[in-house]
Amino acid sequence: MIDQTNKEEGSADGVGFIKGVAIDAVIFGFHNDQLKVLLVEYKNTGIIALPGGFIGEQENINDAAKRVVSERTGLKNIFLDQFYVFGDYSRFDPEPFKTVMRVNGAAHRDDHWLLQRFISVGYYALVDFTMTKPAPADIFDSCAWYDLNNMPRLVQDHTQIVKKGLEALRANLDYKLIGLNLLSQDFTMGELQTLYETILGKKLLRPAFQRKMLSLEILERVAKKWTGGAHKAPYLYRFVPDKSKV
Amino acid sequence: MIDQTNKEEGSADGVGFIKGVAIDAVIFGFHNDQLKVLLVEYKNTGIIALPGGFIGEQENINDAAKRVVSERTGLKNIFLDQFYVFGDYSRFDPEPFKTVMRVNGAAHRDDHWLLQRFISVGYYALVDFTMTKPAPADIFDSCAWYDLNNMPRLVQDHTQIVKKGLEALRANLDYKLIGLNLLSQDFTMGELQTLYETILGKKLLRPAFQRKMLSLEILERVAKKWTGGAHKAPYLYRFVPDKSKV
DNA sequence: TATTATTGTAACATTATGTTACAATAATAA
DNA sequence: TTATTATTGTAACATAATGTTACAATAATA
User: Does B174 touch chain A (CB under 8 A)?
Assistant: First the structure.
């Protein structure tokens, strides 16, 4: 447990971590027909940020990213993709971390490792909203979902990082079928279409969408879903990963 | 000049640079119907590597990449794209740099900054082969073009980096029209097609390719090119960047 | 049993891409 | 000068992909 705490983002010293490189994770979820992003709020400061972390001295960077997302969502087997390295000098701004330390009574000097310049590697993660258990660490007041369309002010350049992460998600949507990672195991074609429409920010025509998805031959029909509505019941579909690897 | 030398990759101390983060550049050229990659050979060692460098303490990472490519090619206005961060712990291997230092008489200790673990940000660059003046630095025996299909053994994981860089180039080819950066200002449709075929590693059908390229409305016909061959002379085309921004 | 809203998909229209064919033409050879 | 050759530019058609309209099927409700 002490070991665990020591590996959290806010640990007092940088022992065991590579300095100068950070990971920021744009964790996307989908709920109530809206894209959500998981954000943390630093204790007693109102400072809201992307979940982030550092890379263990002997850790693969992709494993570090996975660890960061796991710690905040409670999930394993996370869909993760690097999308950009944020390395402008202008993003260097030690003030927020100074505030976090001061307010929470952590002594620090200006040459503290967290107050130096960081290069940040951006990852986006796609998770099943219904399966996540957002978990704050000691240094956070909260770890919670926010509507992508109604985001609070974020620390440093994190708003920009979210924007770029969404662009990467859009660019990869057709190519990687990644949208499916955002839904529960079983879903209707309508839900899938709404997800795509939400990610792309535009309406799609239903017949073409359904035909396209079915032509990929990666979905299997599992049952009908009686929604209680006064209309025909939609089928439930499930992603069949084997079929996409032929 | 001293200042300049101090900023080269092989400088003895790491003063002025961010530690732990490096840039590796896959610089593509196109000549004699073949894709070329610019590589450096470390003095007296036979060690061949991608041109690389480090990030100044107050330098933007993208500017550092541009600087690295400029130093080796002599060009300004370089097309550059980040494509991946190589951060596996297993790629950490100080032996090659130890050899470089030992052979060239540079004293070093095992805790020398160049012998620590680095996270490497991969960039690919596209340059006009005919305009480049490959320039080795003091620590290199050579800086020269190699056929992509006939590459020597590269240091560390650089072969892997080249492979991933080529994949990124392929993936972006249609999307970003980046192929045009590899040709001289004026080129024939045949040259453009050969470039695409070389990058994609497959033949394309001529009428479809020509129709597609012309439909983009970013090429203007400038003149005919009399090649001396016993056949109809092809037109020369030129890229019209303005038109692609409408 | 009629009404309503939504689903699944057929049918057709349009666009994009793949393929074949051929006239135009620059150099060479007869 | 005139045929020959190789290559270019593009028309014409074939096929595939995507956009659009239409409508039957069907759960729940009136």
Answer: no
Query: Is B85 within 8 Å of A89 when comparing Cβ atoms?
Result: no
Q: Does A117 touch chain B (CB under 8 A)?
A: yes
Q: Do A55 and B87 touch (CB under 8 A)?
A: yes
Give pTM, 2 decimals: 0.93
Q: Which stretch of DSSP H or E encloses residue A189? A: helix A189-200
Amino acid at residue number A143:
C
Print pLDDT tens along chain B (246 aa): 333 334 444 444 567 999 999 999 999 999 999 999 999 999 999 999 999 999 999 999 999 999 999 999 999 999 999 999 999 999 999 999 999 999 998 878 888 999 999 999 999 999 999 999 999 999 999 999 999 999 999 999 999 999 999 999 999 998 888 889 999 999 999 999 999 999 999 999 999 999 999 999 999 999 888 888 878 999 999 998 765 443
| Contact A170/B at CB under 8 A | no
Taking the C-alpha atoms of residue A89 and residue A161, their distance in angstroms, rounded to an integer, is 15
d(CA A174, CA A171): 7
In whole angstroms, D16 C1' to A211 CA is 14
Q: Which residues of A9-34 are buried (b: 16+ CB within 10 A; e: fewer)?
A: bbbeeeeebbbbbbbbbbbbbbeeeb
Report the distance from CA of residue A29 to the C1' of nucleotide D24 in Å, as an integer.
Answer: 37
What is the amino acid identity at position B31?
A: H
Nearest C-alpha neighbor of B51 from the set B164, B170, B158, B126: B158
**H or E stretch at B38:** strand B34-42
